[in-house]
């Protein structure tokens, strides 16, 4: 993929993931609204993006230890900061269930296992974190997916098999949310990077609109819901393919950049900060979004400031002023990168303690 197109693709997904996450927040705030199809597509985009850009980052070289350490450094600080904030919030609110064995599992993002296996969760931690559990499962499975991606025939078979399995599980093991569609999104992202499909944005966009119109007509006009799942699969795939090749005006991407650096915080925090004080749904939603975004942004900035201070302290303790200067420059570069379109494509977190990717301008993993 040409460098310019890679940069544009990365910028497109920066905007798309921010919008998808805001839709998730809105969908959770308005559970009775008919937003679930849009939220399902948004979750698929988040999953696809993670699969695609992880495969891009580790396409030519992969080391399991380095991979795991990068993921830990990327997700760990955000999880820790949010967990501490929530613990203080729950103590102030006098919540029960804090000191149960489920709390540590929720705090490290494994809530999905409690949900999927019907385990009770008296802990106040862990609301709606099944996507984070899926992300961790994807990271654990990525070394095997990468082996499959080395041969296109095997990659095709893996993706097709995963699609068939997820489609069957959607009906055989229903979960009440679009778990299986989202799970396949990770695999399809790796598949798309390995096969580099060249689909015109006009074709993918037009097909996506046709399928969306058909979905709306079948449900709204005729009340026919039996085709909802395959139609949603089609719309989600078309949306992902469109984002790979479309040219979205940069002004829209620029608006999303301040939020691109705190997606993990937004995702985990939003269900705990709902405001229903005025009785007016639209106003309460706006107040909720403002509160969630403000708290998430402050926490993300605090994490960056802390990492810079730690880097400075470590370098100074080693008596190496040149190393201290280099570390501060490195952190400044990555702080800036985390708020730029081409660099902000980790699905939930864009703090990136690693060297830039030499493939175009995509720096995501």
Tell me what the structure shows.
With 365 residues, the chain is mostly helical. It has one domain. It is 71% helix and 0% strand. The protein is built from 14 helices and no strands. The chain has helices at 3-29, 36-57, 64-93, 102-107, 111-116, 130-149, 152-172, 179-195, 201-220, 228-245, 250-260, 263-269, 281-317, 321-337. α1 crosses α11 and α2 crosses α6 (130-149). The radius of gyration is 21 Å and the shape is globular. It starts with a helix and ends in a 28-residue tail after the last helix. Mean pLDDT is 84; it is low at 1-5, 324-347 and 349-365.
Task: Give a short overview.
The protein has 365 residues and is mainly alpha-helical. The chain is built from 14 helices and no strands.
